[in-house]
Amino acid sequence: MLELRPNCECCDADLPPASPAARICTFEHTFCADCADLRFGETCPDCGGGLVARPIRPDAQLHRYPASLRRVHRGHRYAPPPKPAPEPARWA
Per the record, which residues fall in region Disordered (predicted)? Predict the structure, then answer.
């Protein structure tokens, strides 16, 4: 059974079971869309596998197969890419 982890392992953002922002790899490492896309380029920093949208378990099945309550936070050392410097003002 797929473990639906409740948070991003990088930034610790909450990821409820029906969150469209959850990304997951084949080893069930779980990240938010922002970390997956902006920090890791859709590649899992733990195993090197691809990060894809996590399937959403139907509400009717969550009662029988609940999402995990165990939070995993590894605090990855990867930082977001630096923001570009603002353009200097141009005088007319």
Answer: 72-92
Q: How far apart are CA 30 and CA 60, in angstroms?
A: 23
Which pLDDT value is given to residue 34?
A: 95
Q: How far apart are CA 10 and CA 78, in angstroms?
A: 9
Instruction: Give backbone dihedrals phi and psi of 50, rounded to 5 degrees, phi first.
Output: -75, 145
Q: Is 15 exposed, middle or buried (0-12, 13-18, 19+ CB in 10 A)?
A: buried
Is there a contact between 10 and 1 (Cβ–Cβ < 8 Å)? no
Residue range 1-67, CATH number:
3.30.40
Structure tokens given for 30: 């779980």
**Tens digit of pLDDT for each residue in 16-49?**
999 999 999 999 999 999 999 999 999 999 999 9
